[in-house]
Amino acid sequence: MVIEMKKKWIAASLLVILIVVISAGFVLNQANKPESSQIDSASTTLPQNSNIAGSRSYQIVLNTPVPTYPEKILVYKTVPSTVSREILEEYAKKFNIVDGTFRDRSEAMSLQTKDFIYGVELDKKSGTVIYIVSRRPNDELDSPTKLPSDEEAVKIATQFLKERNLYPDNVFLRKIEREYTRFADQNGKEIPRNGVVVVWFGRTLNNLEVKGTQLDVEIGGNGEVIGYYATWRDYTPYKEYPLKSPQTAFEELKQQGIATGVAKPDTISIDSVTLAYATKAGAFKEDYLEPVWVFKGEAIANGSSVEQVSKSISALKEVPTELITQ
User: Fold this and answer.
1) How many Å apart are CA 68 and CA 13, to the nearest integer?
2) Is 64 within 8 Å of 273 (Cβ atoms)?
3) Are residue 119 and residue 219 in the same domain, yes or no?
4) Rounded distance, CA 146 to CA 148, Å?
């Protein structure tokens, strides 16, 4: 299965977790998806010689029935984040940080223990909350044999969130990843030396998955929680807007093309079309939660799959301009 690489923007006042290599993971408990119709969609393609927006596009084939869809969809307005020292300190208490060094920067504020081992940060733009334990993972405490099983990790993460009132509504278990730091032996064989088990949670609104939501708990040796990351914006229902058909969205997909990195496939086969919401990464301003059609599939070269692909296309017929702020 495709392992989505996690991107965390951690400000300079906190020590950054060592970059790790994802070695295993699996997806759990997918969000509710609309029922599919039986519309034939296997014959639509895009010529390979087009060049869209500076990137090469490929022959795109829709090999799945598109889902049924309503005429309109509810759009949610993003509630601006409220950030203050008092709110930061409330979060800090949840992580047993009651005294330490406070820093207030333009993009975030943070509080660290005086020994700089434990820290919590609050992003001013998105309200993203980060808890970190420095010098973890390490070889002594977080060797692969000391990490919990996947089942144990889920229990630890869920209990950790619930005990601290950090387990939100409309949450579901999305996947588990094991991330390791590796070294090469004298024969060039990569051997994991330390790591963490990362339990990822997803979110639903209006019975649709909110793509881009980030909520994870990182668990080290002996079941100790050594990291927490949450971009979980607040939303309020605004009003319904006309929904673009998946067929129209697919035509836009063909015009835009799909980036495939270094791969040069002969065909891109789309085998999944779902309706969802998409939130922006914590580093970016967001005015409303955007409905999207999500197209997933695989890049095919010489008859074999060479890469999994995914791209989202706006599902709204019109942009809710009245929600956009400067």
Assistant:
1) 48
2) yes
3) yes
4) 7
**Longest CA–CA separation in the chain, Å:** 64
Decide: 73 and 243 in contact? Cβ < 8 Å: yes
Give the residue from 201, 234, 267 where a domain finishes. Answer: 234
Render pLDDT for 276-325 as a digit per residue (tens, 0 to 9).
999 999 888 999 999 999 999 998 888 888 888 999 999 999 999 999 98
End residue of a domain, out of 186, 206, 234: 234
Provide the Cα torsion 276, 282, 283, 286; round to 10°.
Answer: 50
Question: How many domains in the chain?
Answer: 2
Q: What is the CATH number of the domain that holds 139?
A: 3.30.310
Q: Classify residue 7 as exposed, middle or buried by CB count within 10 Å of its CB (0-12, 13-18, 19+).
A: exposed
> Which domain, by its residues, includes 298?
51-76+238-323
What's the Cα-to-Cα distance from 299 to each of 15, 64, 136, 262, rounded to whole Å?
38, 15, 37, 11
Distance of CA 325 to the CA centre of its chain: 25
The pLDDT tens digits for 69-94 are 999 999 999 999 999 999 999 999 99
